[in-house]
Amino acid sequence: MATNIFEKDAIKNVQRYLRQLSFHDDGIIPVPIDGIWADQTRRALIQFQRSQGIPATGTVDNNTWAILKQKYDESVALNSPPLKLDLFPRNIYGLEYEMAAGEIGFLVTAVQYLLGELARLYNFPDYTPSGVYDEATADLVREFQTRNKISATGTVGRETWDAMVAQHNLLLEAEE
């Protein structure tokens, strides 16, 4: 009997979920994601069902599907790398955006957050984010720029933002 495209996609989803769970649960064998319901997929599903305390039938009913999807979503959320920060405005009307003293808003908060996180790396002096791009923020930005061989303007443009985000992401990766 031929498998139609919808059945094949459904099987691939089950395999994708089981495969993800197998990375972090030695009790579930890894399966290929090929859309073919073979013995290996059936055995992995039975292992999953047993681990969840549900009837180990080797078939996907509504209850098994709901639990499998929930466990997959939890596994992805728990085991995925951190999202990268890419909030900085791109060219606006052909002009490069620069954040400077006196500005307020979400981007200022993001810059101040990054400076706070990078303080561990750079031993910045005590700094309390204010939500306003004030002189203390500009001073830390200049210090960061100097240490990274970026023109020390005290303003945050694309180059400074990218350097701050890259170093922040390296700190996150080092903590894992």
Overview of the structural elements:
The chain is an all-alpha fold and 176 residues long. The chain has 2 domains: 5-79, no CATH class; 106-175, no CATH class. 56% of the residues lie in helices and 0% in strands. The chain has 6 helices and no strands. It has helices spanning 5-22, 39-52, 62-79, 106-122, 135-147, 158-175. Helix 1 (5-22) packs across helix 3 and helix 4 crosses helix 6 (158-175). It starts with a helix and ends with a helix.
Q: Characterize the quaternary organization of these chains.
A: single chain
Number of helices: 6
Chain-averaged pLDDT:
87
What is the radius of gyration computed over CA atoms, rounded to a whole number of angstroms? 25 Å
Give me the secondary-structure category: mainly alpha
Kindly state the number of beta strands. 0
Distance between the termini: 47 Å
What is the share of helical residues? 55-70%
> Main beta sheet, described?
none
Proportion of strand residues: under 5%
Tally of structural domains: 2
Element order, helices and strands? HHHHHH
Low-confidence stretches: none
